[in-house]
Amino acid sequence: MKLVLCLATLCMMMYEVESAITCYSCTSLTSSNCGDPFNSAGMTTSSCITNTCLKTKTEVTGVSAIIRSCGLGGDTDSCSSVGGGTVCSCTKDNCNGSSFVMTSAVSTVAAVVAALYFC
Asked: Read out DSSP for 42-64?
């Protein structure tokens, strides 16, 4: 019985790993390659179990920033624009390396906080 439980757990873990997508993780504040145009050379990627990547572009007090990261989920390929920025979410490997741009205020704040926390 223990063997069956171990094998079932292993299968579920493998499914989770396979279902994760890869997203670029960077900010243009610390790497010019992360800006637009995007240059993937030397860029870090992350495995994102939420299956959503984000590209956030914002400007605060004259300083522009682009943040590429894992999203919070939602499995959508969409963009939104609010205030001074844009956020796009996408659901394919490394899709946040493209030059599309969009945002919502909540997503922008979440992405900036995440970038400051994890970078």
From this structure: T--EEEETT--EEEEEEEETTEE
